[in-house]
Specification:
Chain lengths: 297, 479
Amino acid sequence: MQTELLITGAGAAGIAAALSAWEAGCRDILLVDRREQPGGILPQCLHEGFGLASYGAELTGPDYTDRITERLAQTGVRLALGTEVLAVRGDKTAVLSDRSGLTELCFERLILAAGCRERSIGSLPVAGTRPAGIFTAGQAQEMMNLHGQDVGREVLILGSGDLGLIMARQLVLAGKHVIAVVEQAARHGGMARNYHRCIEAFRIPMIYRATVSALHGRSRLSGVTLRRLDSSAEEYIPCDTLVTALGLIPERELVRGLGDPDWLFLAGNCHRVHELVDSAVAEAEAIGARVGGELAV
Amino acid sequence: MRGFDVVVIGGGLLGCFTARNLCRRRLHIALLEAREDVCTGVSRANTAIVYPGYDHKPGTLKAEMTVRANARFAELCAELDVPFSRCGSLMLSCGEKADAVLREKYNNGLSMAVPGLRLLSGEETRELEPSLTKSVTSALYAPTAGTVNPWELGIAASENAAANGAELLFNTRVLGIRKTAEGYRIETDQEVFACRAVVNCAGLYADKVQEMLFPSAVRIVPDGADYLILDRAADNKPTHIIQYEPEDGGKGFNAVPTVEGSLLLGPSERDNELDFAVSEKGLASVRERAAFVLPGLDLGAVIRSFAAVRPNPRREDGGSIGSFVIENPAPGFWSMIGIKTPGLTCADELGRFAAEKAAAFLNAGPNKRFDPRRSGIKKARGMSWEQRAAAIRSDPDYGEVVCCCEDITKAEVLEAIRRGATTLDAVKRRTGACMGRCQGSRCQQKLLALLARELGVPEDAVTKDGAGSEVLGGGRHAD
Ligand SMILES: Cc1cc2nc3c(=O)[nH]c(=O)nc-3n(C[C@H](O)[C@H](O)[C@H](O)COP(=O)(O)OP(=O)(O)OC[C@H]3O[C@@H](n4cnc5c(N)ncnc54)[C@H](O)[C@@H]3O)c2cc1C
Ligand SMILES: Cc1cc2nc3c(=O)[nH]c(=O)nc-3n(C[C@H](O)[C@H](O)[C@H](O)COP(=O)(O)OP(=O)(O)OC[C@H]3O[C@@H](n4cnc5c(N)ncnc54)[C@H](O)[C@@H]3O)c2cc1C
């Protein structure tokens, strides 16, 4: 099989790149995502705040997804969902896997729009046990908003980036007790508007210059040791759930070792982490237009 | 009351291999394990090295078994369809005192015919392993050293034992043992069993289990150790097992390129037992050692840390015991107490040893139907594209990647559940899902849903590793 333009990842960036490549005249585009739904992380973001720059409104993630997928449906971009890109090789071929089989695909250009993964607590030098009840913020968000799964009752949040702040509010709205958001820096790491809307508005305690130094509980988390970074003082905080928002890592494993070939382009969060979907989309549109123009018929 | 010829207590590596080897005889066997799965204890957390055998005193059971076990290891892993990497090891020295120790080990190894041993200069060592510290003055190279995933090996042995007729009973904790006219009566938190012989493989609790009926001359004094795991994508990983015993004494440090492709670093130095709880100091000491031995290693690529517990055997007077202890306090009763390194290497040898004692005692003839072969779960990763395409044709679930870091498909997860996995950790141990760089943040929820569906239980009943570790709803009860 072959395609002129392969786009890996049908999140906001991948869809935006596909749309602008199509508009630029490329007529052979395959957009692939492992998920069953397009939109990447957007469908799990039930809060409002997407698309102020592009649509002049603060949409929810699913609404934003609807807008861009409606536009996508009006193009001839082929969308392959439930499809994993297993490998990308230096000879401009890729191997795709889905339930119907493996496909070896030749392409002219690849736009990687694979998003990012969350840093897990495993990477931190945290002492203690390794019990159940520890989730990354994006994982907790997916579990609650896409699968209706209930993560816990007494929750501590480690990390105050936007994901941490948004999950703090969502957990409160779900009737959970958010004990505090713990942050190692002296101020929160999210956008001002998320701080006001999520933390101040719900009076969620913030603990700055602190970290979780140990986990307790043999089977399910029963508490954590909180360490103040300035005094090294420690205290035990009982909780059954720890939600971590420790930062995002651009997901580029697929092209590791390929160097920087002239047919490969990175867009969206796998290029650099974007706070706003509008910025991820703007970046992807520019790349899509350029690559699409080169491939235009 | 159910009756068996032999009851094996404990489903760690030793219990699994004892049960497997007992199946070579015409015996009715039960393995009783307190937990929900095999290999959740000492066998879950260790250094994963298959030792070449030069470390131990010639003539001891430990030395003999290790050399023999190493020689047979590839065959064992082929029988059990378990990946084994004979990557070779380099034991480093960074000074004259340690050079002398290496020469001693080298001669020791020669006297036991450990194959292929070579003493290398610092320069030769760095040629083999360029990322090593420049302080290396010499190294003992052992080409037969290797690594295996310990729980994969234990699970394989348990599946092979079950396929040959052994009954594996989980969530069954032995609470008491009595002597009877016919043999022994085993009381558990589930039911009572009668048997003619007992092999006690209770790991950290083997002394306590023996003391349910007999005194034990050996006491287990546990201590802890910490490990770090580096992502397979980490830069400058060594390709050999690197071992370093500092001149000033102290615990040896290892870097092991695992069969999964990650790098295992440890153990740490510390002396307090913390019940499989990681110590911060321990982690710092592992990092420090790693930074010295492998200066170019990217320690930012750590994806996990975990703790192990050593079952140190001590005499009543507190003295430590260097050899393997297999007690036989009464006819028909054997205990393996405080079997630490190289218990993984020698698991099959030790299992065979205990099984043969029990079989001789019971006068059991050979089981002609014993089949030593077991097939593992077919892993998509590592298949050629043609094989993988064929696998999807025969089972579309092979087309669906569930764990994207480790490339584990739905077919593998479902097969693990069919083979008896009932918890997230059991699925992880059987498939490798959740072991990669995102540590399950993208696939744990999918595994949870699959487990619930396949086991026919609500999602909030699914646990990480047994009752009390429910993943949803904040857990059933805090502990
Ligand atoms: C919790 C949260 C809240 C946010 N809130 C806001 C907000 O209020 N306002 C705002 O403007 N922005 C917000 N953002 C930021 C914005 O949503 C993101 O920057 C943007 O959606 C990222 O899009 P992306 O396409 O780069 O990545 P993703 O959406 O992550 O898409 C990447 C896709 O690639 C797929 N993929 C990756 N590898 C493969 C492979 N090998 N094979 C097949 N498929 C693959 C993945 O399945 C995924 O669907 C938020 C982000 C988060 C996480
Ligand atoms: C830190 C460390 C590093 C090591 N590194 C290596 C190495 O690199 N190479 C090597 O060859 N060896 C190594 N070893 C040794 C090896 O790991 C052990 O020898 C081996 O795992 C011991 O297995 P086991 O079956 O005795 O114990 P376990 O795995 O602990 O099994 C005992 C089982 O008994 C069960 N049990 C206990 N009490 C009861 C009861 N009352 N009723 C029912 N069941 C019960 C437990 O639940 C457990 O599952 C290492 C050991 C340690 C501690």
